[in-house]
Amino acid sequence: MSLHIAVLLGTVREGRQSEHVARFILQRLKARSVDASLVDPATLWFGDLAHKALDAETATGAKLDFIRAMTQADGFVIVTPEYNYSFPGALKNLLDVTHKPWNRKPFGLVGAGGVSGGLRAIDSLRQVITGLAAITVPAHVPVQSVGKTFGPDGPLVDVEAWTNRIDRFLDEVLWYAEALKAARAGPVQV
Ligand SMILES: Cc1cc2nc3c(=O)[nH]c(=O)nc-3n(C[C@H](O)[C@H](O)[C@H](O)COP(=O)(O)O)c2cc1C
Question: Please, what is the Cα angle at 41 between 38 and 44, to 5 degrees?
């Protein structure tokens, strides 16, 4: 089954290190012929939710394009830094833009931070994603000291170990993406 996975970056910070992790994940998805794209909040500056209405009926322009792209995705990987024990507001704003496109789809979570590796940001996101009527994949990846661990060309240290870790994580994300895609298309619609 051909799958489309959207990789969502969690921050708009200039000089963000987590982008290197997101780009490596994109590369690993493409290495196994998965159709994958990067969703960058820095180029989708929708801001705070100013209107109660969320969905495609009222959206136009870049917001409508975003909603359509998320509708077409079969699953998501979020790569987010941890800022003050949680994930950045830019990511929350992006997730709040719509609701239906996320429903019954899997989210794989990757954190980037200092010693914690963004584990608290990952935990905070699990709760938020439940609110999106979506599920989080149990497997996750914390990246400790992200600036020393990843660079523009991928892992800076333990390249083989990081590649294996991320590939095993993506195995899980793709398993859920395929299973849930089949279930959404199946005869049982509640
Ligand atoms: C505002 C701010 C708050 C931060 N808070 C945490 C934190 O709570 N836990 C942690 O492990 N790292 C924290 N850090 C360190 C970041 O995780 C680290 O700088 C990482 O590089 C951020 O990802 P980015 O480079 O993609 O922005 C914080 C950094 C910033 C800028």
Answer: 100
CA of 68 to the centre of ligand 1 (A): 31
**Residue 60: per-residue pLDDT:** 86
Q: Which two tokens stand for residue 73?
A: 């995705």
Q: How high is the pLDDT of residue 56?
A: 60
Predicted TM-score (pTM) of the model is 0.96
> What is the whole-number distance in angstroms between the Cα of residue 145 and the centre of ligand 1?
9
The closest-lying atom of ligand 1 relative to the alpha carbon of residue 17 is 25
Share of the chain above pLDDT 70, in %: 94
> How would you classify the pairing of strands 150-151 and 106-112?
unpaired
Take atom 28 of ligand 1 and give the residue whose Cα is closest. Answer: 83
Given a contact cutoff of 8 angstroms between Cβ atoms, the answer to whether 91 and 41 are in contact is: yes
Distance 90 CA to ligand 1 centre (A): 14
For the stretch 144-167, pLDDT in tens is: 999 999 999 999 999 999 999 999
The answer, yes or no, to whether any atom of ligand 1 lies below 6 A from the CB of 41, is: no
Write the secondary structure of 143-176 as one string of H (helix), E (strand) and C (coil): ECCHHHHEECCEECCCHHHHHHHHHHHHHHHHHH
The rounded mean pLDDT for the chain is: 94
CA 8/CA 5 separation, integer angstroms = 10
